[in-house]
Amino acid sequence: MAEIINMPRLSDTMEEGTVVKWHKSVGDEVAEGDILAEIETDKAIQEFESEYDGVLLYQGVKENEPVPVDTVLAIIGEKGEDIASLISGGTQEKEDTTQETIKEEAEKSTQSTVKKQIPSNVHVINMPRLSDTMEEGTVTSWHKNVGDKVAEGDILADIETDKAVQEFESEYDGVLLYQGVKENEPVPVDTILAIIGEKGADISAVLEQGSAVANQEEVEIIDDEKPVVVELEVKKTGEHSTETTPSEERIFASPLARKIAEDKGIDLVQVKGSGDNGRIIRKDVENFTPLAQHTVGSESVASPNIVAGEDKHIPNSSMRKVIAKRLAESKFTAPHYYLNIELDMDNAIEARKQINALPNTKISFNDMVVKAVAMALKKHPSVNASWADNEIVQYGDINIGVAVAVEDGLLVPVVRNADQKSYTQLSAEIKDYATRARDRKLKADEMEKSTFSVSNLGMFGIESFTSIINQPNSCIMSIGAIVEKPVVKNGQIVVGNTMMISLACDHRTVDGATGAQFLQTFKAYMENPVAMLV
């Protein structure tokens, strides 16, 4: 008897899943324990094993197409078994509505028409979903041009996701017949990326499906980019012109503005409006000052031609959009508050000198901060936590996210089990992450599962700043520059070295006293670095 396998819920927060790769095809024999597919959840990609023996009779989900949990994933049964009723029935919990049925039939009709027109020797490649949060991609560089021969495994293009730039390989042999995406222009996932087939193959049926909207958008953009040139010329008094005089132009002004202008003898043509659509309002007239007084018979000073500055419209990259979305969600869902503390860095400076005097050793103050944070979190586990709807999760591991500025945004690689690593281990790992982050070579799993984050702008001379919490973390620490200034020690004013620290906390999980106690412990470690070695 055939067995229906639904899309499983592989994590507690999973609402939909994506088959990134099928390991079995329809008609293949399947044994219990065989890997059916690799499924991408909201957290990771996992191998999914079959619980049944038999033949794979049906695949209900295409690769790289997200579907809700409990959607029919596959049907396994005996060879030749009739499963028509199972397929038409769908999942047990699937709701059938007239609107959905009409939509599906229309899509099937369109797809079938297109498929009939596409030759069998043509392969359409869509923009792939290369990460779980990717919604659009950008081709940063094409490695093949139209007309080039392509072999399976050849690099077609470099594709920028919201996390990294990845090389994208061809799965087909043939000739590159079409490039559907221009370099450095972001497009949604599943947009036609390229078409590969035999030389001379007819691909007009595919191209007709998606060109009209793109062409319309291009025209609008071109019209919107024209520079504006404003020419100002003051003529000699008495010179005649056949052009429209200022008094004949239509002026948009409020009645009160007109009244004030009339009383003061101000020509409204000379007044620049600050209201909607350039409308002149009261304050524009009251604040107006003539540029020059003209005397009859005198020659005025000619103004130069003024070219209006051209605005730049810079498309948002996938990374920038994700940063905007996540930080906005954090700022407006987590009630932030901030704690500030000043550190005496004299001992830390001396300790760093001694450590760096050792052979093959070089650590930064940032490395010392990460170590001190990890040690303090060990003593204050309530800070190493996340808010959930019905509970607070305190993590057993201490994983520190270290913010790294990159060309188009910010990446946060994660130093795992930071409390168990030495200064030199932390230094080497953070340097490696920072280098690969700037080269966009980090893997997705190297930026996941942080429990606390740090951000350092001290190298730019910033003495103090605050950060937005990197959810699901409950806190993020902002590290300022070391400043040499007068301080009081033992009742005497002396020259000292200080550093400002700001801690942003989510008040849902970390109360003020809890955050303050954590900072006291952190301060003790930083002002006495030897204590971290005990």
UniProtKB/TrEMBL annotation:
SUPFAM superfamilies: CoA-dependent acyltransferases, Peripheral subunit-binding domain of 2-oxo acid dehydrogenase complex, Single hybrid motif. The keyword ATP-binding does not apply. GO terms for cellular component: pyruvate dehydrogenase complex. Its EC number is 2.3.1.-. InterPro entries: 2-oxoA_DH_lipoyl-BS, 2-oxoacid_DH_actylTfrase, Biotin_lipoyl, CAT-like_dom_sf, E2/Pdx1, E3-bd_dom_sf, PSBD, Single_hybrid_motif. Its cofactor is (R)-lipoate. Residues 252-289 form the Peripheral subunit-binding (PSBD) domain. It is an enzyme of class 2 (transferase). GO terms for biological process: pyruvate decarboxylation to acetyl-CoA. Keywords: Acyltransferase, Lipoyl, Pyruvate, Transferase. Residues 2-77, 122-197 form the Lipoyl-binding domain. It comes from the Bacteria. The keyword S-adenosyl-L-methionine does not apply. GO terms for molecular function: acyltransferase activity. Belongs to the 2-oxoacid dehydrogenase family. PANTHER family: DIHYDROLIPOAMIDE ACETYL/SUCCINYL-TRANSFERASE-RELATED (PTHR23151), DIHYDROLIPOYLLYSINE-RESIDUE ACETYLTRANSFERASE COMPONENT OF PYRUVATE DEHYDROGENASE COMPLEX, MITOCHONDRIAL-RELATED (PTHR23151:SF90). This is Dihydrolipoamide acetyltransferase component of pyruvate dehydrogenase complex. It comes from Weeksella virosa (strain ATCC 43766 / DSM 16922 / JCM 21250 / CCUG 30538 / CDC 9751 / IAM 14551 / NBRC 16016 / NCTC 11634 / CL345/78). The lineage of its organism: Bacteria, Pseudomonadati, Bacteroidota, Flavobacteriia, Flavobacteriales.
